[in-house]
Design goal:
2 helices
């Protein structure tokens, strides 16, 4: 039997990412809550796009997954994000299921 969708609240995401792992909530021009923290390689960051609207409610089942990328500050003209960071690594998306915390941590843990 496959995994089933679970609703993830902003409070749950904050406890897991901010309280337990030191991520910060970013103030970016996106409709969803975005978290970021430095990675182990100098000048790089792990950014997580939570699939939770800034109003606090998660998207419905099938609407989106949690996406994670590694970014680097890049002086070139090839910046891809509004705050001047360039994506250098894209991790496999995480479905919002019962084991979302473990699955998310597995994606970026080796880069922290």
């Amino acid at each position: 039997m496959g995994s089933r969708y679970v609703n993830i609240t902003k409070e749950e995401m904050d406890r897991f990412l901010i309280d337990a792992q030191g991520f910060e909530e970013m103030d970016l021009p996106y409709a969803e809550v975005v978290y970021q923290r430095p990675a182990k390689r100098d000048g790089t960051f792990i950014r997580i796009y939570s699939s939770i609207h800034k109003g606090g409610r998660a998207r419905r089942s099938g609407q989106d997954a949690i996406r994670t990328v590694m970014l680097s500050k890049d002086a070139s003209e090839m910046n891809h994000s509004p705050d001047g960071y360039k994506g250098i690594k894209k991790y496999k998306r995480v479905h919002r299921t019962k084991n979302w915390r473990l699955n998310l941590l597995k994606r970026y843990d080796s880069d922290l």
